Amino acid sequence: MHDGGLHVEGVALTDVATRFGTPCYVYSRAALTMAYAAYRDALQAHGLAERSLICYAVKANSNLAILNLFAELGAGFDIVSGGELARVIAAGGDPGKIVFSGVGKSREEMRAALEAGIHCFNVESASELEHLSEVAGSVGRRAPVSLRVNPDVDPKTHPYISTGLKNAKFGVAFDEAFALYRRAATLPHIAVKGIDCHIGSQLLDPAPAAEAADKVLALVDRLAAAGIALEHIDLGGGMGIQYRTDEPAPAAAEYLAPMLSRLAGRREKLMFEPGRSLVGNAGLLLTRVEVLKPGEEKHFAVVDAAMNDLMRPALYDAWHDIARVGADTTAKGAATAETMSYEIVGPVCESGDFLGHDRLLALNEGDLLAILSAGAYGMAMASNYNSRPRPAEVMVDGSIVHLIRRREDVTQLFVLESTLPREG
Ligand SMILES: *Cc1c(COP(=O)(O)O)cnc(C)c1O
């Protein structure tokens, strides 16, 4: 599906556009299932599947149908807010398989997670540990805790998605973790359970994650020697995916092997928090060319999707392959179009509103385009900027298309707003 523009599984994208309109996110159930299976199989190959839990990082794509699909496959979930907790529960996820990450958990979010009975809090600071201890005391529970340690390794990815360096806002500094574990062990409403690290996202080289694992394992052993035995080791997410046809990404088995070989023969349970790698290549954004605007230096193709629908190009200068969907009843003169270099841009009033630069395509107004590999951090980051209703989302399952989120209606965008009362 990654390199095919025309069909997703057994369904033509032209049919999706006719039935559901554009812009529209299209996901493949088979691709989601296969991405999860690749993780499972890699763990199996190292004899680790039995004592591992794959916690899907909800923030990558939090649609209920996707959460429900992963829950059915046996996944746990990595959440970063009370909102994500509510979504996982609404989607039928098991609260006992949830880990809660994030640098700024509110007391209210802590309380909700404790009451739901989540598996573990990934605590990211000394202060958070004290807050959690207080909240757990006030509701008469013990909070299960991992410290998210910051192993200070460079994941060699985009600075905005690099999270494990010394100066990052995430996690507890590696040198302070040991003392904080000792403190945690003295708190009556804290149950020390594990350790966690997550060094960044879209990682293509397995070496930094393996280096982080080495540091984490050394700390686990040091803690055990001091009488603090951990039940689980959570090595986070971050595995990269292929965004460009000419830039292949490692397969899960290949990426995970150096990490997994270090974990064989240990007694702790293992956890992973993959987000992007489970959903990224399983989704695309379907959009229609509204206007072709030839220029002196650049030719613009203005499409009906924009930075508010898919923010990654504007935010990270990220690349998504863009394919013309093909034979389309509403396109005129498809055969006459000339291949040219286009700036693929949206209608939003920002120069940063682009989906792709310098793409060689033969286009007519009315053509459909598929923005590929848009399943992760696509809809999840979508906004209503410029009062644009967010796209519909559909999931293809063989030859069936399920609408999994209706297109927003303009009136829904201001339903929470009110004008000032009239004076006098
Ligand atoms: C975002 C995030 C993940 C998932 O990262 P991916 O790169 O999407 O795999 C996992 N763990 C934590 C703590 C995160 O913040």
Q: How much strand?
A: 15-25%
The CATH architecture term of the largest domain is Alpha-Beta Barrel
The secondary-structure class comes to alpha/beta
Mind telling me the C-alpha Rg? 23 Å
**Biggest pleated sheet:** 9 strands, mixed
Task: Return the domain count.
Answer: 2
Mean pLDDT over the full residue set: 94
Distance N to C terminus: 62 Å
CATH class descriptor of the largest domain: Alpha Beta
- Shape summary: globular
Tally the beta strands.
Answer: 20
Could you explain the architecture of this structure?
With 424 residues, the protein is of the alpha/beta class. Helices cover 29% and strands 24% of the residues. Strand 16 (339-345) and strand 17 (354-362) form a beta hairpin. The protein has helices at 13-20, 29-45, 64-72, 82-90, 107-116, 126-138, 174-186, 207-225, 252-263, 276-279, 312-316, 410-413, and strands at 7-8, 11-12, 24-28, 52-57, 76-79, 98-100, 120-123, 143-150, 172-173, 190-196, 232-234, 269-272, 283-293, 299-303, 322-324, 339-345, 354-362, 368-371, 392-397, 400-405. The radius of gyration is 23 Å and the shape is globular. It is built from 12 helices and 20 strands. The structure holds pyridoxal-5'-phosphate.
